[in-house]
Amino acid sequence: SSYADCSSLKLRLQRVAMASEMAAGNRSVMKAVNPKEEARLFNKHYQQMAGDLFNRTATDVCMSALCRPRHRMQTTELGTELRARLVKEARAAHLQRKCGELLNSEELKTIWHLLVAHRTLPDSADGERFINYLDYLKVCKAAGPKCSKLLSPSLFFKLLQADPLGRVSTDHLYEFISRKTWLLQTRVCLSLYDFSGDGSLSESDLENYVTNLIPTLYQLRKLDKLFYSYYVCTAVRKFVFFLDPLRTGRVRIFDILTSSFLDDFAELQVETSSPSKTNWFSAYKTLRLYGSFLALDKDANGLLSKTELAGYGAGSLTDAFLDRLFQTCVTLNGEMDYQAYLDFCLAMECRSAPQSLSYFFRILDIDSCGAITAWSVNYFYRGLQRRLRSHGVEPPRLPDLMDEIFDMARPADPCRIGLEDLINSGQGATIVSILIDASEFWRHESRSATAPDTVGDGPAEPDEEELEL
């Protein structure tokens, strides 16, 4: 038992202690040793034997450590380590097996040739090819068992359109197969960075993924390596802002796959076309964002003060909004770093996205009561009033502005505008704009307002089909 093991070990230690003391010439230990001396000797030699693992009294050591068999503790620690290694090896083997199940480029070419060879005539007037169900089954059989999961009967009927002969376009069929294969390849690739194994990535995991992705993007071949860290920060920030709105510190891999962000990255892999200037992940957009940050940073300390950020865009942001912005966002000694600036840019450029409205809602909710009230509108109206009068423009009456905002929001509670009301109204971007930006307010009042420039919509709604491994 544990108590017997403890007593036996203590007796052995006493014998060792007595032998060492006798060897040192202290023969008094042959006599009866008092309890204090016994505890001192026991503690001294136990620490020598255990490598000074404990720095406690002999009684504490005996009661806490020795009462639990040492071999049991070693077994527990060893079992935990082995279990972690087993899980890690099992995940690696699983991902390797999934990689082997995916189609490579040669197999995709084979499927395309089979679709063309077994197409069902006649072709359309514009040369589009079609295939009926019987010929489709021939392709499934000739393609082999590896393609059976992709070339299923249900796929044919999902792609079936209003063709009078009941056929499916071979182009649409091949495009689906290529797209599905690419998504599965990306799913496996992202899983390699999921060290926790919970199907999500931290911000540092995403940074590692994007860093390793840069050399594969043709459109970034001229990007200076010294700028890589800023590019990675800019790219990852969009994932975090849109796909982790609750700020949990994790982004689900499924949300990444069902968003449109991977399509933007795929656009950078094409050699024959130049990416859109509105593509957040393009070199042009990244350099433009970082350049605007440097232009605002007048004292060149790598941070933006409230006064410096006031020069953003047309310089028409109200002081009331800037005060609240620096109260709610994370700052360093009252100044905004590059990551916080990117969040601000994403919110400003994609104002109609629910994540952006949530970002602004935290700023507009000055009482932290979960709603925009008449008091909130009054607070931002005063900042708007000062800005307009400084340019010689007389602002409208507060009651008129209040009625207009609540009419646009159509809240369930006529005295409070909640975040859900702001999103569901379809006028959230307009409400936010006229409360924080004097120029946008004037455009709205003169009815010449234009939709704000955007750098991309928020993430697409997830498909029903799960991309499970």
TrEMBL record:
Q: Which SUPFAM superfamilies match?
A: EF-hand (SSF47473)
Q: Where in the cell is it found?
A: Cytoplasm
Region Disordered, annotated ranges: 447-469
Q: What is its main location?
A: cytoplasm
Under InterPro entries, the record lists: EF-hand-dom_pair, EF_Hand_1_Ca_BS, PPP2R3C
Q: Name one GO biological process term.
A: cortical cytoskeleton organization
GO CC, sorted alphabetically, is: centrosome; cytoplasm; spindle
**Biased composition, class Acidic residues, residue ranges:** 460-469
The keyword Cytoplasm appears for this protein? yes
Which UniProt keywords are listed? Calcium, Cytoplasm
Q: How is this protein named in the record?
A: Serine/threonine-protein phosphatase 2A regulatory subunit B'' subunit gamma
State the species of origin. Answer: Macrostomum lignano
